[in-house]
Amino acid sequence: MNRYSTIIEQSLHIGGMNEKQMFAERLKNAMKTAGYDVRSSVLEREFNLRYWGKPITYQAVRRWLRGDSIPSQEKLQVLAHWLSIDPHQLRFGGVAQPSIKEPSAVWDISSSNEERRLLALYRRLPTEQRKVALEVMETFVKAYSTTDSPNK
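Below the sequence we write its predicted structure tokens.
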């Protein structure tokens, strides 16, 4: 093996070895920037509220944060959307290339974490349970409106 191929091989090995760790650092920074504690339990909860596939385990998100693994593209998209970061930037770092994005709905921009969480939980319910949840909320609103309204 000549000197140049050894250097290239070492560069590839080092780059491959650090790639997961660099992703972990970008993920931690994105969580901090978005106002979340950088903890596996927080990442697991927030990710699973937004991901419609099979829920991810605590151990899997822990591997992401420790730099032992990188999520699939589908999961990376969910992380990026949740943390308001470009998926390419989260995965590879650097400055993202401009892309065409669908504008966010007004309710998505103005809703709080609590409201988004409530909506995510609601969407996970079967249709019949959604109807019950809606009825319960309407009952609360009616009860609240009658007790706090000075005209009633």
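The radius of gyration is 22 Å.
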